[in-house]
């Protein structure tokens, strides 16, 4: 159980190399998906490729995904409570709080135009981005990769949950550079919240996966309906 990481005596270069590898494989997967001509495959492959590498790294170290985010059981009440806490925190602190503050000081709005142009009024793209992307590559894939694997390796490297949370949030934010500076800062804050909830709920990824899926569902539905919430 990952209530407390057992740090193996190994070179610090190992987690560093693994983190760099999976992060560099994100654009590789995005490119491979884009080359198919199916726009929805780009974000999917952007998670599938690094997750395959992360799975291999875990197996190489005698571990599994169970060890980095699913080892500790959670009651249904706890799951629902932490899922709700995560969603409410993101909307209050990030979507309505930080976003308005950043725009008040003169920063441009979060750039989500690439999604809006594809999804608004288009049922096919809406469903494609809602199910395999929002709930698949984003909710499940990003939580496994960032809050699971990368966060675990950062904690292994730094021996500090605090630095692990900050580090994974930074990598999470950089992966969203296409959303502009406001989007990066918002995603970084979201990553901090998700990382903090992960530790608060006993190192369990399920509430984060559910919360991530619900937040992205709200966003995709807003884009589809042409609502200017984000």
Label this structure with key terms.
mainly alpha, globular, 8 helices, 74% helix, 230 residues
Please describe what this structure looks like.
By secondary structure, this protein is mainly α. It has one domain (13-225). Helices cover 74% and strands 0% of the residues. The protein is built from eight helices and no strands. Helix 1 runs antiparallel to helix 2. It is globular and about 50 Å long. The N and C termini lie far apart (38 Å).
What is the H/E order?
HHHHHHHH
Count of folded domains: 1
Percent strand: under 5%
Residue stretches low in confidence (pLDDT < 50, at least 5 long) are: none
Mean pLDDT: 93
Number of strands: 0
Helix content, binned percent: over 70%
Main beta-sheet strand count, sense and barrel state = none
Q: How many angstroms does the end-to-end distance come to?
A: 38 Å
How many helices? 8
Indicate the structural class. Answer: mainly alpha
Rg (C-alpha, Å) = 17 Å
Task: Name the shape in a single word.
Answer: globular
